[in-house]
Structure formats: C-alpha cells, structure tokens
Amino acid sequence: MSKVLIVMSAASTWERTDGSSYPTGYWAEELAAPHQKFVEAGHTVDFASPGGVRQPLDQHSADPEIAGPDCARHVEHAERALREFGPLLKLDEIGLDDYAAVVLPGGHGPVVDLYRDADLGRLLVEADVTGKLIGAVCHGPAALLSAVDPDGRWHFAGREMTAFTDEEERLFGTAEAAPWLLAGRLRELGAKHSGGPAYQAFTVRDRNLFTGQNPASSGPMAEAMVSALR
C-alpha cells in the first residue's frame, strides 16, 4: 500500500479587509473523510503543515446546523487521527519520494497561508511533474496557487478543477470583506474552474489532479483517489 500526505494550514485567523479577524481552522469533514477513506483502503497517512503547527478545529465544522448531522463523527475521527499521529511534520523538511499522493483539505486557512507557501509550492510542482496524485477540497485548492514555476507562471494554469464557489462564500456569509474570493481568483489565473449546486457534492478530475467543491465533496474526492491508487 501507499503513503499519503495531508497538508494542513497553520492559520487560526483570517484577517479581513474591514479590519476584523475571522477565526478559522481545519474543517473536520474535509480532514476526516479523506483520512478514513485512505486508511480503510490500507494506506498510511501523514500530516504536515507550515512549521509543523497543529491548526485548531474550525468550530463551524462542529455545528450540526452548519456542518450537518454527521459533524460530531467527523470531529471525533479528525481529532483522534491527529492525536494518534502526534506532532505534525514540517513542510520545509519533507521530501515526496515515499508518498504517492498529497491531499489539501480546507477551512479558510489555505487562503491565509498555504496559497503563498514556497515549500508547499515546491512539493506540489514536484508531485505534479512526477505524476503523484494531488487532491484539494473546498478552500484547499487555494494551496495550488503556491505552485509557481521559476518564470513566475502558475503551474496549474489551464487545468480543470473545482473549489468552494463564490456563490457558496456569499451564502456562508464570508464573501463580504474577504481579501479575495477563491473561485474567481482561480479563474483569473487561468484555471478552468467549474462548479455544481451549492453545498452539493461535486468533484473534478484532470489527470492526476482531483478537486472537490465543498465539504460534501471530501469523501467522493478521496474515493476517486483511492480508486486511482489501486
């Protein structure tokens, strides 16, 4: 079986254009569902982040009125997985030789730090060039923006993908005062972004790149990756 690397943001707040700070963290389902799918398929999963910082839980993802009736199960699985893994690996110390796939879950953190993390960018370019699988869900595709070639070109320009849509951001109440909106930014930089109905599972595969639109897409995206790893 293979090893999978889940890369988390290290951000706990999202600074807004109106001067406010929005508390953020990892979204439980987006971490738990892929982790569970990979482990059940027999794969080993490692966790990493900038500086090895363990990001807190986004409390919105533990609210059944927001995250659905299964959120308690996702929170329990995610927290147990992180606790059992122990200290997170540091991005700047990671090599990809032992990994078959890299997964980027969301929460708003990736639009705070991962989108401009040079160490992650290096890993993602290497992963793509060598044909390793890359998965990103909800706000996780913001992390793909870190992958910039030496000439300044975005490595994933022209690729088909999905991400948390601008409509979903508005419905969630976080579009106003956001420094930038993810789906719009991806399109501006050359992604072929598409989306499905708000908050319904929707995934896109472009060769070795797997993306999911929102938390409900986490499990289906991971299932597609597991199938590809067989």
Task: Give a description of the structure.
This protein is of the alpha/beta class and 230 residues long. The chain has one domain (3-229): Rossmann fold (3-Layer(aba) Sandwich). 30% of the residues lie in helices and 17% in strands. It has helices at residues 28-40, 64-67, 71-85, 118-129, 166-172, 182-188, 218-229, and strands at 3-7, 13-15, 21-23, 44-49, 89-90, 101-104, 133-137, 160-161, 192-193, 203-206, 209-212. A hairpin with a 5-residue loop joins strand 2 and strand 3 (21-23). The protein is globular and about 45 Å long. The model has no long low-confidence stretch (mean pLDDT 97). It holds the Pfam family DJ-1_PfpI. Residues 29-226 form the DJ-1/PfpI domain. InterPro entries: Class_I_gatase-like (IPR029062), DJ-1/PfpI (IPR002818), Prot/Nucl_acid_deglycase (IPR050325). It comes from Allokutzneria multivorans.
Which percent band covers the strand fraction? 15-25%
* Main beta-sheet annotation: 7 strands, mixed
Mean pLDDT: 97
What is the CATH C-level name? Alpha Beta
Q: Give the strand line-up of the largest sheet.
A: 5-4-1-6-7-11-10
Instruction: Tally the beta strands.
Output: 11
Unreliable stretches (pLDDT < 50, length at least 5) are none
Using only CA atoms, what is the Rg? 16 Å
Distance between the termini: 9 Å
CATH architecture: 3-Layer(aba) Sandwich
Q: What fold name goes in the CATH topology slot? A: Rossmann fold
CATH level-four homologous superfamily name: Class I glutamine amidotransferase (GATase) domain
N-to-C SSE string, H for helix and E for strand: EEEHEHHEEHEEHHEEEH
